[in-house]
Amino acid sequence: MRHFxxxxxxxxxxxxxxxxxxxxxxxxGAMPFIEDTWPLDALTQGWVVSxxxxxxxxxxxxxxxxxxxxxxxKIIVATGIIFTIASIFCAYAQSVGQLIAARILIGIAVGMxxxxxxxxxxxxxxxxxxxxxxxxxxxxxxxxxxLAYLVGGIFAEYQHNWRWMLGSGLLPAVILLVGISxxxxxxxxxxxxxxxxxxxxxxxxxxxxxxxxxxxxxIKKTLESGKTESKTPFKAWMLMxxxxxxxxxxxxxxxxxxxxxxxxxxxxxFAGFSSKIGAIYATIGIGLVNFVMTLVAxxxxxxxxxxxxxxxxxxxxxxxxxxxxxxxxxxxxxxxNLRWVALGSVVIYIAAxxxxxxxxxxxxxxxxxxxxxxxxAMSFCTVANFGFxxxxxxxxPVMVENLGEPFTFWFYAAIAIFCLFFxxxxxxxxxxxxxxxxxxxxxxxxxxxxxxx
Length: 453
Prior knowledge:
Growth Hormone, Chain: A; mainly alpha
């Protein structure tokens, strides 16, 4: 019970992840029915799905500076408001153009929340449970995806089904708005704004067993060291953690996760699930695997570390993609079994991703960036994430149309192998190291494989 309020704060903030996940998952179930309303070619289908990602880039880019200026909490409040408005616009879209515009708006909220919630969670979390609490964001994303798949199943046979699906995001958006209104900002941001009294109160609430004064002194020391070096906020040593952060985002997205999440129903239709309803129900099973395996990551990230989970996950992602490509390449040989081999391959892929790249990617990015520019740098990495996401999601239908399913999935499998080497050589292990000490390792140019507490 001593960390009760810490867990309450983390749970409420993580609702932003639920909204981001809901947007990712809901378009998968809605897309086949949208095509019944407006017949779409492959490129237009890609634009409808990826429109949210365009908005996400805008949202993430705009909020690095804003989060440092106005605080993490106010940005989360803003995301709740935008989610609410955008959900209504999506449900009432009267043309493909209006739907794309509405999804750009909801994407702005996704970009904001994807950037600010991991940042918020990392800055309020004690180092011993920081990995677990930041993982709550990814758990909430998987819960949102599962919720979206369930909503797709519920409304699939309703009149105006896709409108009900897209409009359902209104409810969690309102819950986030109400919940976040009762929370404070992070101590590290408050101290950066010389609001030490408020920071002390937050520390006493979320970490009652620690000495708040020592915490405040340590954070002030980190901030002051940045000031004394130079008036220029950016230093040469800061480039490496930013590049590693961008690399982690590349590994998370360019191994193909959102082709699976956004197009799950479409992939299962390719594999032989004859009805849209059957494909949607298969998708619900995938959402459940995604959620459960994220719980596994939460249980082990602070015990065995970030990098071991990344090695396991990237290996599983490679196997899943290789198998999925094999299934489509041997469709005639497999016959009716194609659907089950494809389903099993996607399960392997999702299970591997959910216990590694999904949560660990955001944990690492929220930990490794320098405090002085953390908001801006986190924004930059999030923009990179959505930039990669846009390229992958927009290109997927076109790649399938021109290269075929096997070579499309094998292309992502090759990227997974490249990312294994990147993790080994450039990504530090941050388990059990305070944010301030992680930063000192970067300052002292400690190689990623030799980071120390």
